[in-house]
Amino acid sequence: MENLAQTYCSLGRLTEAVNLEEPVLEKYTRLLGTEHLETIIAMGNLAQTYYNLGRFTEALNLQESVLEKRTRLLGMEHLETIIAMGNLARTCYNLGRCTEALNLEQQIPAKYTKLLGPEHNFTIWAQCNLAQTLQKLEQYTEAYNLLQEVVGKQTRILGPNHSDTLESLSQLAELEALQANSSSTQADTIAIAVPKEKKMRLTVKSFKKFLHFK
């Protein structure tokens, strides 16, 4: 039943998958208990299917439980715990709970770097997710600096024409535009309070340089 559900997921037949995964989780819970590894795996699989169906609240409820169990049974630094943390963070992001997502995602790249190295796919994906959340929270400078690092890694590992590299470059360009717009808005706001004879000193260009924007 579980294998068939995974096949349905691979084929994009998510409703059929969830109709199998729900009873699988119920059976594992009844037969093995809530703390058994198979039960936790089944819970994570069902949560991912809910997520893929856009049923984010249901996914969140399961993912919070998975993360708590992984943390308690395996420890904070175990790979499965870090994956669970990342899954929960993405669900928080999609529910608009970006501050909660950020609190989780800020921990993840360092953990992956320690376990897998700075250039592993998981590490780079975690950095991309963190950059996206930072952008959503309008922390443009932090997002831009992080994404620059990502683009450097992707260019070196995947090549400049890889789809992942191109996607990150597109996001980087978007961030640069957001930074410029944010700088212009702030410069205009400050200019209102500056005496008329001094306004010419505070150009957009000098303001961007002061904020260390590219």
UniProtKB/TrEMBL annotation:
Organism: Mycena chlorophos
SUPFAM superfamilies associated with the record: TPR-like
UniProt protein name: Kinesin light chain protein
Organismal lineage: Eukaryota, Fungi, Dikarya, Basidiomycota, Agaricomycotina
Pfam families linked: TPR_10, TPR_12
